[in-house]
Specification:
Layout (H helix, E strand, L loop, with lengths): L8 H41 L3 H37 L13
């Protein structure tokens, strides 16, 4: 049988902090791209009101791209957060776990 190496609590904490900061960064990226999409939609709306079809179309296209990226980043953040929760609770038995179970 292979011998298991003891778990270093400092390494576990460092890894959890890294995962949390990574998830936070994906949330920030999602928010930034949603913000950029909104700005481009506003420019597209103004151009549309002025009958500037080319500018409206261009900014609508750019806004759509930012929206797609934002949704991707938001999905990654949600998945990573869910995985982090699962990892925190993976060794729990149902009686001692403080996490809500689905």
């Amino acid at each position: 049988m292979s011998e298991q190496k003891p778990v270093n609590p400092e390494e576990v904490v460092a890894e959890e902090e890294f995962i949390q900061s990574e998830v936070a960064e994906y949330h920030r990226l999602a928010a930034r791209h949603f913000e950029l999409a909104a700005k481009h939609h506003m420019v597209a709306a103004e151009a549309d009101e002025e009958d500037d079809i080319l500018t409206a179309g261009y900014h609508a296209y750019v806004a759509h791209g930012h929206q797609l990226r934002a949704v991707e980043y938001a999905a990654i953040a949600a998945e990573d957060a869910a995985l982090a929760e699962d990892e925190e609770c993976s060794g729990c038995d149902s009686d001692s776990c403080t996490q809500e179970q689905p």
